[in-house]
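Hi team,

Filling in the usual template for the complex we talked about on Friday. All components are listed, including any nucleic acid strands or ligand strings, so the model treats them as one assembly.

SUBMITTER: L.P.
PURPOSE: interface mapping
COMPONENTS: two
RESIDUES: 852
SEQUENCES:
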Amino acid sequence: MTSTVDASPFVNSPARALVCRGCGTEFPLAAQHACYECFGPLEVAYDPAALKRVTREEIAGGPPNIWRYASLLPAGQDPATRVTLDPGFTPLVPAPALAREVGLRAPLWVKDDSANPTHSFKDRVVSVALTAARALGFDRYACASTGNLANSVAAHAARAGVPSMVFIPSDLEPGKVITTAVYGGDVVAIDGSYDDVNRLCSELTETDEFESTAFVNVNVRPFYAEGSRTLGYEVAEQLGWRLPKQVVIPMASGELLTKIDKAFAELVEFGLVEAPADGWRVFGAQSAGCNPIALALQEGRDDIIPQKPTGIAKSLNIGDPAAGVYALEAVRRSGGWMAYADDEEIRDAIGLLARTTGIFAETAGGTTVAALRKLVAEGRLDPEAETVVYNTGEGLKTLDAVADRVGPTYRVKPSLRAARDAGLLG
Amino acid sequence: MTSTVDASPFVNSPARALVCRGCGTEFPLAAQHACYECFGPLEVAYDPAALKRVTREEIAGGPPNIWRYASLLPAGQDPATRVTLDPGFTPLVPAPALAREVGLRAPLWVKDDSANPTHSFKDRVVSVALTAARALGFDRYACASTGNLANSVAAHAARAGVPSMVFIPSDLEPGKVITTAVYGGDVVAIDGSYDDVNRLCSELTETDEFESTAFVNVNVRPFYAEGSRTLGYEVAEQLGWRLPKQVVIPMASGELLTKIDKAFAELVEFGLVEAPADGWRVFGAQSAGCNPIALALQEGRDDIIPQKPTGIAKSLNIGDPAAGVYALEAVRRSGGWMAYADDEEIRDAIGLLARTTGIFAETAGGTTVAALRKLVAEGRLDPEAETVVYNTGEGLKTLDAVADRVGPTYRVKPSLRAARDAGLLG
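RESULT (copied from the run log):
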């Protein structure tokens, strides 16, 4: 599967090549993720004319999921070819009470991607990656995961009836392990960090035994990353085809942030939204236990110094972030900033988001809301500018983070007298 | 709040009265759930002319949630009046592999209501109940719950910025307790069964201190129950405006089953679907630990003998089911049947559903899939007839049910050699 395939799997796709983000060398569309010239990461390049033909009406006429943007994605133009749980078009929730609590005086929205089928934004990237993988002829699905990706790959594989093998660090939250294993595929727990898991998966893709296995975030990573653009398109469409002034995005590999920024730029370029007079500003969130991108920004460096991650925001615990330098670039170019939050701040922010919006986020969402609060307090976010904060996962998967903080406020016997004695009647 | 209110909160509603399901006495639309004449339960009665004006086009032009059926609901016609997380329009997932495993040779679909905002079908009934409650002037939201309802009421109240107080049995799954308490409202754990909790809540509604508290499934229950009809409408619309031949539905109070059956009948009556030549058949599912309705059917009785529930399907553990006799009626009238499953069968069915569809259900969903399998094996379900099975909740909330059955299939150190030694390379 490392050989170049002919273009036919992508015949109706606007994608035209893979291009190196480092040196610009182009390669045919295939299962390749690194440049043969400079070892830089590859991304999908499109035929600009094809993308520019897309209209708001065509999108509005599509299904209420990521496939409404099929004309902007590298694979899956024909619905029959999709390997998908039909994720996306998740709620954009107005959050006036949260805005008040963090000190924003302009509209604030939460893009709530916990509403996806396996309750994280990973369903978007997995649907696109596996649809490309099927087109490329792979017959087993795999990934290196901090948890959410494993849930999504295992569930997609089950729906498609294809074998799967997912790789996770062995210290993951039980909720994420069980929610992966229940789908019946292989689950490989690795005694190491996510970065160790990722390295092993890269090695496995080079073996004969894994020749026909698609690792969604390794050998088909360029297709995988493209799915994140839908999180930019949807926000713009849900705002009535306009861009917010500010967005706050969690960072693990940093790729999600770069792709949302790219999606906004594309929408302007394609004429689907007006170019905002003073652009949009992109803000990144990390945890104190894993902040290599945010530290580089705050210290004015261009290089990312790898870390050994710690802390409760496990889904963000990538110590050697593949797209970190691109996230730095996007944030600097847009005039944004990055912040990081410690475990207590993350727990607080999970509660804050839940109380003010009815959305129960996992630790990654808590990290992002905590960063939102800091960025306002530090004057980095303009309190008068419309803001969107991304929640990428579900609180049910990281219950331990809040288990010792919340519980019943009363415990009583089942009688009116007991209720009265407990003070329930005021 | 027990006094009759004037009709103005429901001025654009097709609802015209509350009517006793026992003796047929009518009452004005208000916070009343039992007949003053015979103590029978009340339900919402509609103006038939108003309902019959609804068209497929009007529905298709609505939002992708329950409010697309606002013209068929008792409250919330004006979007600004809604207290809602915008639940509904959840996926209808084709399940050919599950069909094969249970022995069905016709199309099988899973209506997956774990996709709702708080991941159970309760969001539907809570949105309708609280929208009616707000119209009626209540300023605190409450419920008696086996867990999912508590999650939903607490989340709705948080989004709306209204205080809440939810009542649960103290032995609930931790996932359901934390996911309720995180929203910041009061959570009252009662040392007793759900039926004890429900009885206490009924008593509390009669106190002065709870005069302005809406218990969604007690004093505004008639409105609450109406939300379940959307689970019938959606299936018909998603099938291209036709009815399935067979539906399998979990039973706790039994109300969900009666309302889906009612929704199908309404669609035929309103001319929104063709009347099927030989109707549709309704099947009910309970657990062996709480099967009062199924036992009554199987033993040919008209009365429901209350039970003290046991077993892992806690969200179905209502030993004295309020709508049990109506569920019996609907199943008998339609030519359906009921089955119940023990805890091991429920666990097996959770795994079966996950492996074959990518849907991770809570114990209630496992119960329903286990019942589906039994009903086919026993010849009660026609294996040649199109069937829809309802999954009403999310596996992440009842992880303990499968925690000791599933887990990593391999555990290895992060090296290619370790992977090879573990047998990962075949």
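MY TAKE: Chain A touches chain B through 76 residues (CB under 8 Å). Chain A has 16 helices and 14 strands.

Thanks, L.
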